[in-house]
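We now fix the convention by which a protein and its fold are recorded. The integers have meaning only within a learned vocabulary of local backbone shapes. A complete example follows; check for yourself that the lines match position by position.
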Amino acid sequence: MRSAYLQRPDLVLLDVMLPDIDGMEVLRRLRTVSDVPVIYLTARSDPIDVIVGLETGADDYIVKPCQAREIDARIRRVLYRYRAAERRDGDVYDDGLLRLDSLQQQAWAAGVPLPLSRTEFRILDRLVRHTGAVQHFGTLLEAGWGAASPGARDRVKFTVSRLRGKLDATPVGGGSIVSVRGMGYLYRSPTTPALPPSPKPAAASTGYGHTHALHDGSRAQDRAEQK
């Protein structure tokens, strides 16, 4: 755990059967602070173990014994998926308070650098570039990890929770990421001015003076019939 925190590896190969704490608990704790790609490499081959292992947030599950070439191929596949998801155009998003450079994957809030993990940046980038539009869990999962996986909603929720915590320490505020129950999230820029209430439409002025009375009487009769 200490090595994962301090060295920030590109990928982690993790055994399940460890002497002091099992690998699945290690990954649960790791996922609260990091989105580093993780592949289980273990002798536990029961299908339930595989399912639980993937649901804890692993990107792949390899059962020993296996060939070194298979491990190498799976590592390359996971890294390719992560790096492909990182590729973005060079456009810069700037709403006057939050600024994101998709090419450099750098973010600033009120001119101050905002440290984000790769996945946090990708999720925020997706949200802000579709400001005001709901981004479904599946869309955010694709943006953040590049593929569907078990426990998808939990992965998105954990990442958004970390994002909100970091934004709360800035003028942007964590409330700018709005939950849409059962669907996903949307970004609402704090710099977007609130729309004034729409004025009530004026009564139509076309026709002769008695036309309004005729329309009003007709509407009243319709309401009476509906009752």
The two ends are 69 Å apart (CA to CA).
